[in-house]
Write a structure and sequence with these properties.
Blueprint: E1 4-8, H1 14-23, E2 38-43, E3 46-56, E4 59-67, H2 76-90, E5 95-100, E6 113-115, H3 129-133, E7 139-144
Parallel strand pairs: 4-5
Antiparallel strand pairs: 1-2, 2-3, 3-4, 5-7, 6-7
């Protein structure tokens, strides 16, 4: 994670974000409309990771967590998710939810637990991910943000 800097996405980032998501085989539907709630990680000019939120009231759908192939396994995915969840908490989001077909063992480290679709607030079902972009067999997970997530690794006392 050396020489990586983080910033919120802008409209000008869409091309790079869509390329990263496509390489990670993640859906593009709905992502551009919520780009203002994406956090990006760069090494120099290269986008190396992304994580996004679709905010529905006090609930946010965590989506588009992607890390470039060369940076997988370095902790970058954990770091960007922690930073985004921290932003969500400070913005007043009370719970984060997600759908996954491949990463159900990654997200419990943040406190996400498996739930059913019936356990989620109705407003998140407006997301394209719930409208059929993600299969109905996807694992559904939820995290209550009743306290701030752990600080990013770089900001923790040594």
């Amino acid at each position: 994670m050396e020489n990586v800097f983080y910033r919120n996405a802008t409209e000008a980032d869409w091309s790079a974000v869509s390329t990263l998501l496509t390489q990670a085989e993640l859906p593009l539907a709905g992502a551009e409309a919520h780009l203002q709630h994406f956090l990006l990680a760069f090494r120099g000019e290269e986008l190396v990771a992304s994580a996004g939120l679709e905010v529905y009231g006090t609930t946010a759908l965590l989506r588009s967590v992607a890390v470039s192939k060369t940076d997988r396994g370095t902790g970058l995915g954990q770091e960007i998710v922690r930073r985004l969840l921290d932003q969500a908490y400070h913005a007043g989001v009370k719970q984060a939810v997600l759908l996954t077909t491949t990463a159900d063992r990654f997200f419990p480290r943040f406190g996400f637990i498996k739930v059913t679709r019936a356990d989620l607030p109705g407003e998140v079902f407006a997301s394209p991910e719930f409208q059929g972009v993600c299969p109905s067999t996807s694992t559904v997970m939820r995290l209550n943000l009743d306290r701030a997530p752990l600080p990013p690794v770089a900001d923790r006392p040594q």
